[in-house]
Structures are given as C-alpha cells and as structure tokens.
Specification:
elongated; 1 helix; 0% strand; mainly alpha; 87 residues
C-alpha cells in the first residue's frame, strides 16, 4: 500500500509541476525578452550617440593620420638563407 501511495504522490507532484510551469513559462519568457530588449536598446542607444557625435557632413574628407615617410622599401629586414634539399 505504501508503494502505491508513493507512486501516486510522485505522479501528483509531476502533473502539478507540469501545470505550474505551463502557467508561468510565458510570463518568465516575456520578462526575459523585455530585459534583453532593454539591454540591446541601451547598447544601441550608446552606439547611436557615438555615431551622432562623430558624424560629419556628407562628402567631407578627413585624414586622421599622415603616412609615415621614413618607411622605404629598401629596408633591410633580415638575412637571406638559401636552403638545399638533402636526399
């Protein structure tokens, strides 16, 4: 009799948890979606404010750094070593 009672209690707990999860899951997912959306909007807002601050008129040419004039192609990089195959 105790074994049957234990099986019934386990089944009852299983079905109760199943019903509670079905009731609470949509609310939990909507809460997580709202939090995620708020996080993305915050990050996107920061990105857009940076873009707005850095934005200049369309068609303007801006040079941030002048090219290095000291770099020549005849710079000695290292020693050349010729390898031979050994059979």
């Amino acid at each position: 009799m105790a074994f049957l009672k234990t099986i019934l209690v386990i089944l009852l707990v299983y079905y109760l948890l199943k019903m509670v999860i079905r009731l609470l899951a949509p609310k939990l997912f909507s809460y997580a979606a709202k939090k995620t959306e708020a996080h993305f909007q915050e990050k996107f807002g920061d990105f857009m404010s940076q873009q707005g601050a850095d934005e200049e008129r369309v068609g303007d040419v801006v040079i941030d750094k002048k090219p290095n004039k000291n770099g020549s192609s005849s710079e000695k990089v290292g020693e050349y070593i010729d390898f031979e195959e050994v059979d």
